[in-house]
Each structure stands twice: as structure tokens, then as C-alpha cells.
Amino acid sequence: MADIKRFAERVNMMVPEWIAPSRQQRRHDRSKTPVVLIGGSFAGSVMVWTKQRYPDLEALAIASSAPLKVVDGYWEFDRMVARRLPCANALSRIVREIDDILDRGDVRQIAALKRRFGLEHVASAVDFVTALTIQVSSLMQAPTGLQTQELIARYCAQIERKDIDALALMTREYGQYHRIVPISECPETSDDLA
Fold this sequence. Notes:
Elements lengths: L1 H9 L12 H4 L8 E6 L1 H12 L5 E6 L11 H9 L3 H17 L2 H10 L8 H17 L4 H14 L4 H15 L16
Parallel strand pairs: 1-2
């Protein structure tokens, strides 16, 4: 939340050239233009919590479909996944294997694991694990229907092989299909967020 506050206080954006032809006109005047913090689902809650924590922040917060009650250790979610994902047990075994490798902290083993997934460019273990969850999260959030059931069946057919390489193959294919931009290729931002 402190990062969001810092961004809202320091953001200095340029208006596109097609809207304002001169550089002077394109310069965003922070004092005349309010910042609007918008988020959906959990991100919506974070925006509202930011405004609550920093009431003097000159920004409007809008939350869409934001959870009203935070539940620590929401174990019921795992039951929903298990009901919808027939290969949840096999996936759990693979996740435990990945966790064991990451928990050991052996840099070479971790690098080899990331290479297997085509995610060697991802520096952080948290970002690596997050990249692995995208597929199953997409399946769990997809609307129910025949097409989603077919996607789940294909996913589970691979996962039932019960090894990391099955998940690694699907992750690489998923990344190629969606053309995920590697985190290391994201542009760096300067301290003043200009």
C-alpha cells in the first residue's frame, strides 16, 4: 500500500502526442489532475485499504467486486479447486516436489528447475511460482461449460503423468500461446516515475 501511495503522489505522466501536440501541453500537471486508483477483486480491496490507511492521499479509490471480508487461511478454496479439478491430488504432489526444490535453496537445482519450465529469466522464486499458477488459476476462473470442461480434461490428462516435466511442458506451451513477456524484459522505471 505504501508503494501505491508513493505512486499516486509522484506519478508524472505524459499525454499522448495525438491529444496534445506540444511537449509543454503533454506534460501531466499532478496538481490539476486527480489520481484514480481502480481495482477489481482483491486489487479493489487493496485500493480501498490504501485510502483507509492514508486518508490524506489525494486520490479517488474505486473497487469493483472487492471482497468485503478477508479470510486468513481460506482453506475452503482448496475444496472448490479439488471439486472442479479432478487431477488436484496429482497437481498437489507436483507442487510439493517443486516446493521441496525451492525450499532446499540449492541455486543450481533451482536454476535447472526454472530452465525446465522455460522460466530461467525469472529471478524471484515468488515470481516463478506465480507464473506456474497462471494456468490453473485461469481454469478455475473460467466459466463453467463444455469448452472449460474439455480444457480441464486436457490439463488433467497431462498432470496425471504425475511429474514436473508434464507441468513444465504445459507451462512452456502456455507461455508461447499467450506470448508472455518475460519479467526481465519489462522496462525499468526511474525513481521519479516520470
